[in-house]
Here is the input.
Amino acid sequence: MQRSTDLHEFLNSEQQWLPSLSVDCVIFGFHENELKVLLLTFRRTDLLALPGGLVHRQEDVDDAAKRILAERTGLTDIYLEQFHTFGQLGRGSDHFGRKIAGANGVDLPADHWFTRRFVSIGYYALVDFSRVVPSPDVLSESIGWYDVRELPSLVLDHSLIVQKALDTLRLMLDHRLVGFNLLPETFTMGDLQRLYETILGKKLLRTNFQRKMLSLEILERLDKKWTGGAHKAPYLYRFDTKKGEEYLNNVDNRPERINT
Here is the structure.
């Protein structure tokens, strides 16, 4: 009953929000050598979508994105970047809004604000998969992780938003060293290489990858990782934030691209 009441309150909350502006978040996580994204399933439908929301009239857009991410993941210390604005003329859908409301017993009047065209600001977020506690929003009945390589059909232009975010993530692997945000605090060189290979969608030569990563001088090597196996245990590494910032500020002396 509470969820039904919340839905009705939301559909009657137009005055709280900036008109026709929304935020959509592509939340990436890395687990078992798969790059995953969080998707919501709308209540009483088979429609899937990216987590998103609206912007309060007295709220910065970036703050709205942070709020939405905290509500969906339970985390506040998230790497977050705005990457694109989606405002195609046809992205609004009267049918879409009415289907969501109608599935929950609500008959929206003509030109209801929820059925209008929305311009959406896209953000991508990188999270430690193990720390996320997914929570659905008022319009959704469930939320879960999906392999980015095998995504189901998504509403509106959300498939395009995911692809644009993935393209940006691939570019930022070099320019911002963002991949470390998807790993736990300590990791092996093999863990790091598998992350890069998964994001880039291709295999990388181990010796070249290790040489390039170590040449950046942004990794702190820790004690060896004990595996209990017969093979030599790999070293554990940790990203050195201070050295990483120095590397990013020293663009003239950067080595060749990591992802080659």
Notes: The first strand starts at residue 17 and ends at 31. The chain has a mean pLDDT of 89. Residues 6 and 21 are 21 Å apart (CA to CA). The longest helix spans residues 158-175.
